[in-house]
Write a structure and sequence with these properties.
The chain is built from twelve helices and 14 strands. α10 crosses α12. The protein has a seven-stranded parallel beta sheet, sandwiched between helices. A three-stranded mixed beta sheet has the order 9-11-13. The protein has one domain: NAD(P)-binding Rossmann-like Domain (Rossmann fold, 3-Layer(aba) Sandwich). It is of the alpha/beta class.
Length: about 350
């Protein structure tokens, strides 16, 4: 019996991982206590996704456990021990703005929760592959210091800059920048994941994600902008763009493409590894460009307003350079680009809302 332990199993990445690894023949222990509803209210509620997993997946066992509860996490790992072949740690508090409301809660979940899962893995399942969903916010607002040029619908980096062609690579410093409280707690978790690989010899990896998206996202105003933007478009709810004239650029990676990257690493793991992962130049766009695409697809206008107030520590321009990961795992390929991502989210939202 081979088991995958997946934290945040009802969320976007956790549920995609659950379905994918279940299809590959692994038994799944899903850990999720729907904290997203606590963070974001009804918009963030993931219970619909949990019910779908429990209904459709024969070898899925759900555990409603808070990852801050060290003893309960330890019990799960102690019970399954060496049968656990992979740990996919997706549970997190994911919002810049929310983290500032309750810094201790944010740090407890993102940093101490990660430590609990790592330590349980080390003690009881040390042969398991440990995959962590980190974030590009570990770089803080350093990307905003790049030489950026304002264009009609987006910001772009100067064409002669080293990051212009492929995006930002792992050489960017994580120091001397404003991370937001959320970014700081994810830095702590990211470094812990690396150390458990380098110091203790666990097979660990931190995937520093760009904009992770897909139809399973319970998008809310403070997190999950593409899914929430589409929801607002479908339901007629007003949408607010915070800062940068709506020209901020994000590289968007579908949750399926991220999970196939996880699978590639699981098949041939390394120790204490770090990868920037996102849509790269293959799949990216600005907020204004996303709005135009959605309006054309739905045949109606989105009720949106522009706020001059940017979110603290937010990026003006982010595109991930994924060449390091591709050099280690050349078999990995994208299935989705930005238009395919948006069309799928739109079709899903029309049915759901």
């Amino acid at each position: 019996m081979s088991i995958a332990v997946i934290t945040g199993s009802s969320g976007l990445i956790g549920s995609e991982a659950t379905r994918f690894f279940h299809e590959k023949g692994l038994d799944i222990i899903g850990i999720d206590n729907n904290m997203r509803k606590y963070f974001f209210g009804q918009d963030g509620d993931t219970s619909w996704n949990r019910k779908d997993l429990e209904k459709k997946l024969k070898h899925y066992a759900h555990k409603e456990i808070d990852i801050r509860n060290k003893d309960k996490i330890r019990q799960i790992f102690k019970r399954s021990g060496k049968n656990i072949s992979v740990v996919i740690h997706c549970a997190a508090q994911p919002s810049h703005d929310w983290a500032a409301r309750e810094p201790a809660t944010d740090f407890g979940i993102n940093a101490l929760g990660t430590l609990n899962v790592l330590e349980a893995t080390r003690k009881y399942s040390s042969r398991a592959v440990f995959i962590f969903t980190s974030t590009n916010k570990v770089y803080g607002d350093t990307p905003n210091n790049l030489p950026l040029i304002e264009k009609e619908t987006r910001w772009e980096v100067e064409s002669n800059h080293p990051f212009a062609k492929y995006g930002i690579d792992e050489s960017m410093s994580i120091d001397q920048s404003k991370h937001s409280i959320f970014g700081a707690s994810k830095v702590a978790a990211d470094i812990l994941v690396q150390e458990y690989g380098r110091y203790f010899g666990l097979k660990t990896v931190a995937f520093r994600g760009g904009c992770l998206t897909g139809p399973a996202h319970s998008g809310a105003e403070l997190h999950g902008f593409l899914a929430y933007l589409v929801k607002c478009a479908v339901t007629g709810k007003p949408y607010t763009i915070y800062g940068y004239k709506g020209k901020q650029v994000r590289d968007n990676i579908h949750s399926f493409d991220l999970i196939t990257a996880f699978w590639s690493f699981f098949q041939n793991p390394r120790y204490g590894e770090v990868y920037n992962i996102g849509g790269s130049r293959h799949s990216h766009g600005s907020l204004l460009e996303a709005i135009e695409f959605i309006q054309n697809a739905l045949g109606k206008k989105i009720d949106y307003t522009l706020s001059d107030r940017a979110r603290s520590g937010d990026h003006i321009w982010w595109i991930s350079d994924v060449r390091k990961f591709q050099s280690h795992y050349p078999e990995w390929k994208y299935k989705y680009d930005i238009s395919k991502i948006l069309n799928e989210i739109i079709d899903f939202a029309k049915d759901r809302f």
